[in-house]
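User: Sequence recovery, please. Input:
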């Protein structure tokens, strides 16, 4: 969006459309050509200017936004971020920019914003909201999701030392609570929440069986267990997160049964599919969210998009329930579901991390220096606002690759869109002295198996081993979009595919190869793709940490949901 301050509303004649004259605001990245210091400025920051333009209201105007001077925020909010999160489409300015000369200078408040008193009242209301007593089932490492996992539970405890972490079968714990048992029977004697003590119940039952990447059935009974928790505890608020396919599974039958159960308990509820990339992570991740509020409680509205994002990645956000279609949440100001801020990119997330080689699992917890000072605002957030290089980085290691895979990655061009289809068909000697062979096309123009000529007529003897171009990819490529994205490099101006639990060059996640380095993404890079700050600690070996990250809800999305809940509590 372009943002401007209305100077005049007018018509050029009776038969002409309504127009407005605006003084334009600039965003830092648009005001000066890609200076590192401008990428560090908050995304909600604007530069005011005297540049004017005139537009037709019906053609260009999408709605209203709130723009205040930075000085007006002092004493109202603890930080600019709190101001941004407290309402949609909010910005601030403190610089005057001259587009002709490129000069900038500080600017003072001309007049108090017309809605400043309303913001004062809002800030006072938000400050009075008290934290809810929360039970996070399937909490994993702290996002919202994952089943019983000792390593994930340990990670949660490391990051939330004030919380009681129960690592046990959820059905067993519920049975103990129903029987009135107040403490776990093991040596730790941890408290078991009793009926009436839980104000917020949240969780993401394991998605196996619903996920397009994992069709095994064990996760399905967990949904019934989670609803049993809601039925027993009857919390004030209920939040469920799951994969998008949960909404479509079995013609939305499971979703409808879930909603019917909550309605039978007397809850108000709503459901929506949200795109995490629209809430400030450099990743596409579409998730179903169900929000419910007990009778008499203020219902929490779904958050609206904060960032613009790929239209293709935002397709499929409409919710189909039976024969009804529900569109995603839209901004009341603009009437669309695209956000006012630019998307967070791979480059925003990774460009300050040091160069590393593949492997290093033994160094997971060994602090290492950053590659540079923060270069973008996202990196500043990940590093908790520290501008210097004094802090140390952990988890910036990758899985060890075989010599053949290493050779393939080294030959993938470092350009956007490059993947296995750009590999040269040559014979080379690998780092261990063995030979990677040239792929032979034995059937037709590009066929490697008799099935290329006669579908269904595969010959196991046709398989070629240790070829630089993986034989299996051209073998079935015609049936799978030529396996686009496998061995694919990330684009620094693009975003991650949905972060999963095991980044493999030939895995279901798609592009997991670093944009410029010949390796897959590290544990820390995956954590940044999800929005976990660098201080967040994970537990277990390298595989366990990838699993914790891939199963988690992105913290920025969880925060957006939490802000809506706080606003509902403040309005009650």
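Assistant: Recovered sequence (572 residues):
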């Amino acid at each position: 969006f372009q943002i401007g301050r209305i100077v005049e509303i007018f018509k050029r004649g009776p038969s002409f459309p309504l127009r407005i004259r605006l003084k334009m605001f600039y965003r830092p990245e648009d005001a000066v050509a890609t200076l590192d210091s401008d990428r560090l400025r908050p995304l909600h920051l604007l530069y005011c200017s005297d540049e004017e333009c005139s537009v037709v209201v019906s053609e260009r105007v999408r709605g209203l936004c709130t723009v205040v001077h930075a000085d007006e925020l002092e004493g109202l909010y603890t930080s600019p971020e709190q101001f941004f999160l407290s309402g949609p489409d909010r910005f601030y300015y403190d610089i005057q920019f001259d587009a002709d000369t490129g000069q900038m200078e500080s600017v003072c408040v001309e007049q108090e914003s017309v809605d400043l008193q309303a913001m004062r009242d809002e800030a006072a209301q938000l400050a009075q909201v008290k934290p809810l007593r929360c039970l996070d089932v399937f909490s994993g490492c702290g996002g919202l999701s994952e089943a019983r996992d000792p390593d994930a539970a340990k990670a949660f405890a490391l990051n939330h030392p004030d919380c009681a972490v129960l690592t046990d079968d959820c059905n067993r714990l519920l049975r103990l609570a129903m029987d009135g048992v107040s403490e776990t029977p093991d040596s730790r004697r941890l408290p078991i929440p009793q009926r009436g003590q839980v104000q917020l119940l949240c969780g993401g039952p394991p998605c196996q069986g619903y996920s397009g990447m994992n069709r095994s059935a064990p996760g399905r009974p967990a949904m019934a267990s989670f609803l049993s928790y809601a039925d027993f505890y009857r919390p004030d608020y209920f939040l469920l997160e799951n994969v998008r396919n949960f909404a479509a599974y079995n013609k939305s039958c499971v979703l409808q049964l879930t909603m019917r159960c909550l309605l039978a308990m007397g809850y108000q509820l709503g459901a929506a599919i949200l795109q995490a990339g629209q809430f400030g992570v450099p990743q596409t991740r579409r998730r179903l969210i169900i929000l419910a509020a007990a009778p008499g409680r203020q219902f929490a509205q779904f958050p609206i998009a904060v960032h613009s994002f790929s239209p293709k990645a935002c397709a499929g956000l409409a919710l189909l329930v039976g024969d009804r279609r529900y569109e995603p949440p839209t901004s009341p100001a603009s009437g669309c579901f695209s956000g006012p801020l630019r998307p967070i990119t791979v480059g925003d997330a990774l460009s300050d991390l040091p160069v590393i080689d593949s492997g290093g699992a033994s160094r997971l917890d060994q602090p290492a220096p950053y590659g540079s000072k923060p270069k973008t605002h996202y990196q500043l957030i990940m590093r908790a606002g520290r501008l210097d290089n004094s802090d140390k980085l952990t988890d910036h290691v990758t899985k060890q690759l075989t010599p053949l895979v290493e050779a393939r990655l080294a030959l993938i061009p470092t350009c956007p869109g490059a993947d296995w289809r750009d590999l040269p068909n040559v014979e080379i000697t690998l780092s261990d002295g063995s030979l990677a062979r040239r792929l032979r096309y034995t059937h037709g123009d590009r066929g490697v198996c008799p099935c290329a000529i006669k579908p269904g007529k595969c010959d196991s003897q046709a398989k070629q081993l240790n070829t630089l171009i993986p034989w299996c990819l051209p073998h079935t490529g015609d049936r799978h979009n030529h396996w686009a994205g496998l061995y694919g490099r990330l684009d620094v101006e693009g975003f991650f595919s949905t972060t999963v639990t095991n980044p493999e060059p030939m895995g279901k996640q798609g592009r997991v190869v670093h944009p410029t380095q010949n390796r897959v993404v590290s544990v820390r890079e995956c954590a940044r793709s999800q929005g976990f700050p660098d201080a967040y600690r994970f537990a277990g070996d390298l595989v366990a940490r990838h699993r914790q990250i891939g199963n988690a809800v992105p913290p920025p999305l969880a925060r957006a949901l939490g802000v809506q809940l706080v606003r509902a509590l403040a309005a009650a």
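The radius of gyration is 26 Å.
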